[in-house]
């Protein structure tokens, strides 16, 4: 291969992936195939064979950064050197259908700005209240089913239940109850799934729009997108009924004031709608499954039982943003699930020749030519950095807990966990997502006992046996490997059947 180790202090180009005797595009196609077949093995092999940085030739034509320290250098680089805007605008047009004239406009920049401001902790009380309210109602429905069953128990596919519940709760949280009702009536849960399945192909930005109709998965995804846009556009046209304030209202008002049509505003809101649903629900299902099968369950329940209760009922804690902020073990479980169950590719375009250097003085390093795409592969850092301690591939619920690690190490881990990406492209919904995840774990575990029974396979997803060094031996759904670098792991139709009973309080 063309793998070359760099000498410290010298300036070099990134090594190029693949066997030296193969033409460059063949190497690129091999890399792409391997990435889509088994992302983890491929990325770890790159780290082992090429070191911290490698150039993957066309069709990806990207420089992959595979080391935590260098990834943070990319995150710290100013946008004048490594920019994100061209990628953001490309996805807005290719995936969400926003006209190019709008993606280049100052109006869209103002909408993005309102989005970032509207998702800070200061403005999340109402969304989290609505989110929690829906989860409580869904748990109450399960309790009724349990009470009316002779065995006082129900068996449910837990991933599906969590994903459906979070879809409804998160929609109600950001868009309000009325939009949520419209979305459920129009079957947007299914339409979203159709669109989301083709998202990896759109986000790769390798397919011209003219070809969308000829690729079955994309053609089907476009029908899902149209359905989402039509419900969103009608709701915008009707004056956003059921939503008096919040980030979505702010964005829609800016768009309308710019003179964008309801459909154009809907294309911009659909970016938020996708981000709202593509990650958090899958992380929530993994979080619940990991927690109920781990020894940390008692500590998690202790924290939940410590919350103020509605009329002295331990099955019904008062869940507010403030209460959720004071749950260190629950927070650690959530952070650990985001660490172990995400792979994100933060992308930048080099606006000028850029040197990615390990040394504090900036001497030596890897030269990245202007125009090149730089991609931070956070998954490798999550699996290899010494910072995580033993068994980085395993889920260890209290890995991030200050009580376990000490304040300094715990804070350092939180800073270096890049499941939400980082720098100028960092996930704007991370505070909302963290609170949603803590909320659903709290509400479910306060009221229910969940016993995973058996794995449910999706025939399209190969079941991989857990790595010998992975301590995690519990039941979990199989990972869909066709979404490399797109955030939370998804599971297709793979699931875990679980027995659910009302919580037995000892
Ligand atoms: C556990 C749940 C979530 C995970 C793991 C996650 C992960 C990510 C990742 C990896 C990125 C790309 C970061 C980068 O390129 O550096 C991202 C971007 C983004 N996320 Fe999330 N996300 C989650 C939940 C949410 C939620 C609930 C929202 C709410 C709307 C949201 C909104 C966004 C937005 C708007 C961006 C794009 C930021 C930009 O273009 O500058 N995310 N997310």
Automatic annotation (TrEMBL):
UniProt name for this protein: Uncharacterized protein
Lineage: Eukaryota, Fungi, Dikarya, Basidiomycota, Agaricomycotina
